[in-house]
Specification:
The chain is of the alpha/beta class. The protein has ten helices and eleven strands. The chain is about 40% helix and about 20% strand. The relative contact order is 0.12. Pfam families: AhpC-TSA (PF00578).
């Protein structure tokens, strides 16, 4: 009788163990057919559901766990949709194969987006090339004198409409951290001091704006899209590179909580 009880207990434990080894099949937050119906549907889905700057679980087309690096590498091919799956805790994204019949504009957008996400991720953990930003008040910011501080960098130029449209939101974000002496907000800009000065007389922007940075932004950072935001941690390493200020705000909040 005792032997039978032990046998049954072992069988139950073995069953539970085998169940735990099986991947949990999660349903998507939106059906792929709906997401890929047209470009507008895809862009709406991406805006509402995809936040790859957050910590997330990555799975392949069979919902087997893969690394973030593997996930972004595949995403950069343009052959997969990052399909968000339902979960109660940390987000899950699946590589969902895009069929040949999906319209070309969606495929091109997926590829460009995937390449950007991979490039941004590859910048993480590196240092910015040596810089000297001198703001409109003559304050100097360098790799050396900003060590030990979190540095939020916004790269832009005067003719960039999205760069200007986000400024009110960036002003509010800076205000949230106005009592944090260990957080700096610096904004290198293409144009000359006189042009930037004329712009700032009409448009409020509370970052420390550093003019005359065209060569640095193009030749050193090799930026091709604007605005581009960086969050540099207290060790002087890039925690985030993104053209999405919401991503920047998320990572800044995370870094600000670090001791």
């Amino acid at each position: 009788m005792q032997f039978k009880s032990v046998f049954m207990l072992m069988a139950v434990l073995l069953f539970m163990s085998s169940c735990q080894d099986q991947p949990v099949h999660r349903k998507p937050v939106e059906k792929p057919a709906v997401i890929l119906k047209d470009l507008m549907s895809f862009l709406k889905y991406r805006q509402q559901h995809v936040k790859l700057y957050e910590t997330f679980n990555a799975v392949d087309s069979a919902q087997q766990t893969i690394s973030r690096v593997q996930f972004l590498k595949q995403l950069a091919t343009g052959r997969y949709l990052p399909l968000r799956l339902q979960s109660q805790d940390q987000p899950y994204y699946q590589l969902y194969p895009v069929e040949a019949k999906v319209e070309k504009d969606i495929k091109n957008t997926l590829k460009f987006w995937g390449e950007m996400e991979q490039a941004d991720a590859q910048a993480e953990g590196k240092s910015l090339p040596d810089f000297t930003f001198v703001d409109m008040q003559g304050n100097r910011y360098t790799n050396q004198n900003t060590k030990g501080k979190i540095v939020v960098v916004k790269c832009w130029f005067l003719g960039c409409l999205p760069c200007i449209q986000e400024m009110p939101a960036l002003n509010e974000l800076k205000k949230m951290y106005e009592n944090r002496k260990d957080i700096l907000f610096v904004s290198p800009c293409w144009e000359s001091r006189s042009k930037v000065e004329a712009f700032l007389k009409k448009t409020k922007f509370d970052y420390a704006v550093a003019p005359d940075q065209y060569n640095y932004l193009t030749d050193q950072l090799h930026l091709s899209g604007y605005p581009t935001h960086f969050v540099i941690n207290k060790q002087g390493l890039i925690s985030l590179r993104s053209n999405d200020y919401l991503a920047m705000a998320y990572v800044l909040n995370r870094e600000a909580k670090q001791p």
